[in-house]
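Reminder to self: tokens first, then the designed residues, so the page reads top to bottom the way the pipeline ran.
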């Protein structure tokens, strides 16, 4: 067993009616583009790849954050139902994970991220952004404080060069531990019950953003109340070599309540929760082709995660000006009228282009097309309503229509 997760004191010991009323979501709306052949995709397998493959009946895989992950295991409909009505287990090991440790780890992170790291207690987690000097987001993620001088930062994308450059001059170490650490997301209405049975009352009672050590089959696991699949969910962090044991044990002992969920169902659930995804709903300052396309936290509606009073950090001056000026663009959730699944991207305010939808999908539980979209902030106060130019694929021809849309509160469900 590797020492990535072993805690110092560890000693091993020897049907939802609503869903049934509506048609299931269409898998083709979430499938990856087919212009690249499967054998041409350059991606690494996660630590659960071989074991996930044994229950992946569809053999549909997606490349995500440099790793391969199942698109669907059995069907999008059944996995979506598990997330809403029972419980689902998803492989999130594709997340990029950095360990930051040393006497000046806190000082380094105070410079790197926009919120006050000094206020983060041990065994707590918080959403963080890190920006360039222009106040544009370079990346975002979840920061865990494991010990007084040790942290874990989980992100999407590769930001090691940026972290190393920012860490110069600080007495701390930044390590990419992505390949040594697995992550299993346990979510759904029955997730708390399963967590209580397998890990105890302390885990089941965890408040949001808290974490605790536990064990299963003599393997140490770090369990946090974090993730994008629902407030009732957990993330289980475990050494890569132990991840298959935990995965198999949970699915085997709770087979009547728990089923594996692929990327398509997880993405639809994320969309229902109104959570923006790096690299899909917005681009970081380092990867945006047009610098004007990079966003500030204020444009994502994430101003609460910027602490301008905590002291110097990257982008502080620019963010102070951006807050005073007001956001030019706003990330919003949309609910689109019409009872059919549709494809759309352009968002209009009256007859004028207002912005673009970046994540779209059909929500069976809401019986509506929903989306995350970036629109010009000035259009939020306009008298004209919003609409989208939608397409309805058919067997012979594609129908097109303009559908009314309204701003929805996040989370949508």
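Designed residues (413 positions):
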């Amino acid at each position: 067993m590797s020492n990535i997760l072993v805690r110092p004191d560890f000693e091993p010991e020897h049907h939802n009616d609503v869903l049934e009323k509506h048609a299931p979501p269409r898998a083709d709306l979430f499938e990856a583009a087919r212009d690249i052949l499967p054998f041409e995709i350059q991606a690494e397998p996660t630590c659960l790849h071989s074991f996930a493959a044994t229950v992946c009946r569809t053999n549909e895989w997606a490349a995500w954050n440099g790793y391969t992950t199942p698109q669907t295991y059995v069907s999008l409909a059944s996995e979506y139902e598990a997330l809403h009505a029972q419980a689902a287990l998803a492989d999130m090991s594709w997340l990029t994970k950095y360990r930051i440790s040393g006497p000046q780890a806190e000082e380094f992170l105070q410079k790197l991220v926009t919120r006050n790291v000094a206020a983060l207690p041990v065994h707590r987690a918080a959403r963080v952004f890190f920006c360039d000097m222009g106040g544009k987001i370079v990346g975002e993620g979840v920061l865990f404080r494991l010990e007084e001088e040790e942290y874990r930062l989980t992100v999407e994308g590769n930001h090691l060069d940026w972290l190393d450059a920012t860490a110069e001059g600080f007495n701390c170490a930044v390590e990419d531990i992505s390949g040594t650490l697995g992550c299993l997301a346990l979510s759904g209405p029955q997730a708390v019950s399963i967590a209580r049975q397998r890990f105890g009352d302390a885990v089941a009672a965890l408040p949001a953003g808290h974490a605790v050590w536990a064990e299963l089959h003599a393997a140490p696991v770090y369990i946090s109340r974090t993730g994008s699949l629902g407030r009732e969910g957990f993330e289980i962090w475990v050494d890569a070599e132990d991840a298959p044991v935990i995965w198999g044990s949970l699915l085997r002992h709770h087979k009547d309540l728990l089923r594996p969920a692929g990327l398509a169902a997880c993405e639809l659930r994320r969309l229902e929760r109104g959570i923006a995804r790096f690299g899909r709903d917005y681009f970081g300052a380092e990867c945006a082709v047009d610098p004007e396309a990079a966003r500030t936290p204020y444009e994502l509606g994430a101003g609460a995660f910027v602490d301008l009073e905590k002291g110097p950090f990257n982008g502080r001056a620019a963010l102070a000006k951006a807050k005073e000026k007001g956001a030019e663009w706003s990330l919003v959730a949309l609910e689109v009228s019409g009872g059919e699944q549709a494809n759309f991207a352009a968002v209009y305010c009256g007859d004028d282009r207002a912005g673009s939808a970046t994540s779209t999908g059909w929500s069976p539980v809401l019986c509506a097309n929903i989306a995350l979209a970036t629109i010009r902030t000035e259009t939020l106060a306009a008298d004209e309503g919003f609409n989208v130019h939608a397409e309805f694929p058919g067997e012979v021809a594609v129908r097109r229509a303009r559908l009314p849309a309204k701003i929805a509160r996040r989370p949508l469900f």
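The radius of gyration is 22 Å.
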